[in-house]
Amino acid sequence: MLVAAIALPGAAASASPAAPPALVCKLPRGNAGLLPPTARHGIIGHLRQYPAVALATRSQRASAQRVLDQLVAAADAGNWRNVRAAARAGYRTRTRPRQPGDERIFFFHAEREEEPRGRSIFDFTRPKALIYANAPGRVLVLVGAMWSTRDGEVGPTPAGPILRWHSHVVCKQGRKRGLKPPASGICPPGSRLTQGASEMLHVWFTKDLRGAFAISAPRPELCRDGYLPRDSCRRR
Questions:
Q1: Which of 4, 43, 13 is nearest to 186 (CA)?
Q2: What's the total number of domains in the chain?
Q3: N or C: which end of the chain has fewer CB within 10 A?
Q4: CB within 8 A of 236, min separation 6: which ones?
C-alpha cells in the first residue's frame, strides 16, 4: 500500500500564514498514524521503525539475509569503511562543519551521482549512498547504505514485509529535486508540499535482520554492535 500525500486544493489560501498546508494521508482507521506491519511502501513517518520479521516466510527471510550479506561483502571489497576509499569510488564524503558545543550524532548520507542502472535496482557494489555515523571527535563510521528509485518507480520487495521502501513529504518545484520542508511546514513561494516521487531503502550493518532493515537508524542495535560511541549510548 502506498500512502498518498498531496496538498489539498485551496488549503494554502484558507489556512493562516503561520499554519502548514493540510495533507491527505490514506491510513487505516484506529492505527495510531501507522501503516500495518505488512506494508511495504509508505511515507517515512507512517511506517513502523522495525520490520515484522515473524510475518515473513522462510524464503523471504533468506532473501533479506542475502541482501545484508551481499552488502557487507561489497563494503569489504570496496573498503567503504575508509572514507578516502569511498570518495575515490565517487561518494561525496565531505561533511558540514560542526557547530561549537554540538554533541549530536548525525547519520550522514554520502551520495554519488546518478549512474546508468543495470537490470536490478540492487547493485550491491554501487548503493546510491553510504551512511556514516558522524559523532563529535570521532572519524566517520560506516553504518549502512541507501538505494533509491527513480521518480514514479516502485521499489521491489523480494523479502516481503522485511524490506520496505519509504518516501518523504517534500517541497517540490517543477522537475527539481524535492527539499525538506521548513519547520513551519510552509513551502517557499513557487513550490508545493507533496509526497516525494521516489522511494528509498535503508539497510544497516547490524547483526540481526530486524535492526538491519529498520526505517531510520536503529540506535539501540548500532550501540549494541559497537558502531556508536559508548558514552552516547549510555546517555540515551
A1: 13
A2: 1
A3: C
A4: 219, 223
- Mean pLDDT across the chain: 84
- Identify whether the C-beta of residue 80 lies closer than 8 Å to the C-beta of residue 142: yes
User: For 153, how many CA atoms within 13 A lie in the half-sphere containing its CB?
Assistant: 14
Q: Are strands 23-25 and 5-7 parallel, antiparallel or unpaired?
A: antiparallel
CB 166 within 8 A of CB 219: no
Beta bridge partners, 144, equal 131, 204
Q: Tell me the per-residue pLDDT of 121-134, one tens digit each, with 9 for 90 and over.
A: 878 888 999 999 99
164 burial (CB, 10 Å; 0-12 / 13-18 / 19+) is buried
Residue type, 62: A
Cell numbers for 215, please give them: 526505517
Closest to 213 measured CA to CA, from 200, 224, 196, 226: 200
Grid cell, residue 12, equals 494554502
Distance (Å, rounded) from C-alpha 181 to C-alpha 170?
6
pLDDT tens string 70-91: 999 999 999 999 999 999 999 9
Cα(32)–Cα(217) distance, rounded to whole angstroms? 22
Answer for the pair 72, 128: CB distance below 8 angstroms, yes or no.
no
What are 204's strand-pairing partners? Answer: 144
Range of the structural domain that residue 225 is part of: 5-235
Contact 236, 218 (CB under 8 A): no
